[in-house]
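step=encode ok
step=design start
structure_in=
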């Protein structure tokens, strides 16, 4: 068992794991019960769709709370994993936390930080339970559809492949591993950044499933868009993913305040920077591979790279929103893109000039995640048109003649 050289606290202590799983299951019963009561008169496919949307919403909340945990320096509030000093909650670790807080009142371990860290773990466990339920439900739905097809020679098809939630379950387990490494590797910047982007990917996976299930339950087909517009959405999503990685690298290296003026940095359009140090990926927080401290010029390089990339992403988002408006398609997504782009600019600017306020920093992380969700929503609810004529006449493939086929980007709802 690995030991922390500072306080000899075991980094991994699985004694409370069953209690933590019970906590997660208990908390998950609330959204599960709510979905069942709200949709008790609907078909199973509608219940699964509602649960997917609710899981997407709770996962977004988890990403926001993860940002709050990181920004309040609560990531090491409990220095072991998965519990807190071998307990399922900070209540059982009161004596150990008090001793650590007394020895270092402003250190990483305090009663408040321990609770923030453990609440984040409880929420993560809850999301994991919900994704397990989604996976089981998807496979059960696939089995029922095949059984109906075999008995009656036809039947309602499953809205999506059960391999989507299965891969999502794998991904959330991987996220749990990165969460553990975040603690046990003492906020290693590369690990924390990957944990952040992993949360964004989890949101995108759940969004795809929510959109596909919503289209199925509301008898909608994907909106036809020109091929160039569809490629534009994919390219913009890729740019936002890259920018999210750069933003995570800024945050996990505490480089936000390396430049405190805008639009210049240190009074220059090209300040003194050290890119070799700044983008030395595999190293401890605040240190280089040779054990020396990272320079201020390196932190400036990290910050300014993110700022320069932001100009490119901002232009791409506004161009995409203009194209969506001009094409008169995916209007809901277009409005969200404009609003979130403005939010990102304002919160990013306030982080620089207002000395990194907590609310703005959390909103900036949430805005990046929301942008990826909206872009995924647009991509998943559309498909490319083969020609201009194809955009005017909807083919009714796979639908009975008596079933009205509509186009649109129906809002997902639980």
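sequence_out=
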């Amino acid at each position: 068992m690995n030991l922390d050289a500072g306080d000899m606290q075991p980094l991994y202590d699985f004694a409370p794991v069953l209690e933590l799983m019970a906590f997660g299951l208990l908390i998950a019963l609330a959204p599960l019960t709510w979905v069942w009561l709200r949709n008790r008169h609907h078909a199973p496919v509608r219940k699964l769709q509602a649960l997917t949307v609710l899981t997407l919403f709770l996962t977004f909340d988890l990403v926001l709370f993860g940002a709050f945990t990181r920004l309040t320096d609560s990531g090491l509030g409990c220095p072991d994993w998965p519990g807190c000093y071998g307990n399922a909650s900070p209540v059982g670790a009161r004596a150990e936390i008090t001793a650590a807080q007394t020895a270092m009142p402003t250190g990483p371990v305090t009663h408040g930080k321990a609770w923030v860290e453990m609440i984040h773990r409880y929420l993560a466990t809850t999301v994991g339970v919900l994704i397990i339920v989604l996976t089981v439900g998807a496979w059960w739905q696939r089995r029922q559809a095949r059984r109906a097809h075999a008995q009656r020679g036809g039947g309602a098809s499953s809205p999506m492949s059960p391999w989507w939630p299965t891969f999502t379950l794998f991904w959330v387990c991987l996220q749990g591993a990165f969460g553990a490494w975040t603690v046990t590797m003492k906020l290693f910047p590369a690990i924390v950044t990957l944990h952040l982007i992993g949360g964004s990917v989890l949101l995108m996976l759940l969004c795809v499933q929510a959109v596909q299930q919503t289209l199925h339950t509301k008898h909608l087909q994907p909106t036809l868009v020109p091929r160039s517009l569809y490629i534009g959405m994919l390219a913009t999503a890729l740019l936002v993913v890259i920018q999210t990685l750069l933003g995570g690298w800024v945050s996990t290296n505490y480089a936000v305040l390396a430049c405190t003026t805008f639009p210049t940095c240190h009074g220059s359009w090209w300040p003194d920077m050290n890119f070799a140090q700044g983008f030395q990926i595999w190293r401890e927080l605040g240190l280089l591979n040779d054990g020396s401290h990272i320079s201020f010029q390196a932190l400036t390089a990290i910050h300014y790279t993110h700022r320069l990339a932001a100009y490119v992403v901002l232009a791409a988002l506004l161009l995409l929103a203009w194209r969506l408006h001009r094409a008169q398609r995916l209007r809901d997504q277009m409005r969200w893109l404009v609003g979130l782009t403005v939010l990102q600019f304002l919160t990013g600017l306030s982080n620089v000039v207002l000395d990194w306020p907590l609310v703005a920093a959390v909103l900036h992380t949430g805005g990046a995640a929301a942008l990826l969700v909206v872009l995924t929503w647009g991509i998943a609810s559309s498909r490319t048109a083969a020609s201009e004529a194809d955009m005017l006449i909807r083919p009714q493939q796979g639908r009975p003649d008596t079933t009205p086929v509509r186009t649109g980007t129906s809002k997902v709802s639980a």
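step=design ok
step=annotate ok -> The chain is about 65% helix and 5% strand.
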